[in-house]
Write a structure and sequence with these properties.
The protein has 87 residues and is an all-beta fold. The chain is built from no helices and five strands.
């Protein structure tokens, strides 16, 4: 059995050459032929407020004060589309 090893170094550098502050939403790094799903959480409640699919399209989730899901919106090429709404 032949054992092969591959050593790869990935360096990502972001430089702000302007005078103002900048914000970055997210970075997703994965192999080109891999599928990836990401979740965005509310930092206070821990609830999932969005997911990003393999094409980096988002699905947004809205909750009432009791934590019940009340609306879901899906990002498409045409913009946000309401998928469901519970009242």
């Amino acid at each position: 059995m032949l054992k092969a090893t591959v050593k790869t170094t990935l360096l990502i550098k972001i430089t702000n050459t302007g005078s103002g502050a900048i914000n970055f939403d997210d970075f997703r790094v994965h192999p080109l032929d891999a599928d990836m799903t990401s979740n965005v959480y509310n930092s206070k409640t821990g609830w999932v407020i969005a997911t990003l699919d393999g094409n980096n399209f988002g699905t947004r989730y809205s909750y009432d004060s009791a934590g019940r899901l009340i609306a879901t919106e899906k990002e498409t090429i045409q913009g946000l589309k309401k998928v469901s709404e519970n009242t």
